[in-house]
Amino acid sequence: MGLFSDVLLTVDYDRTLTAPDSTVPERNIEAIRYFIENGGAFTINTGRSVPMTKVFRDKVPVNAPLLLYNGSAAYDLAEKKLTFCHAIHMDLWETEEKMLRRRLRKFGFESIKTCEKTEGNLSVYQKDLSGQKEQQ
Questions:
Q1: Residue 38 within a domain
Q2: Domain limits at 102?
Q3: Rounded to two decimals, what is the model's pTM?
């Protein structure tokens, strides 16, 4: 058993592990190696996607899956596969309509026209910004 056995250490990549110029300081690499050599499990957590991690994969030693997409997925570098991925399921149009409604209220708009497709039919509605429908 090493000094850091049973310890998982994660660090954010951008501007935490890296210097302001986006390089990883050598002293950080040395500290990570020391931690791993003494039994610790180390990985990077980031908002980046799998392809965007290529910039550090060969530079920063890790021995645990990368935590990506702000923690919603883990990627095992040795296996080259996602070990888990938790997608956020949301209706893009519904979300956009809610955001638009909030923004328009700020400017004094009282209603918006919106389309709704159900069972192959397209309906156009006038909606007041509280969400009430009036078919046109």
A1: yes
A2: 92-135
A3: 0.65
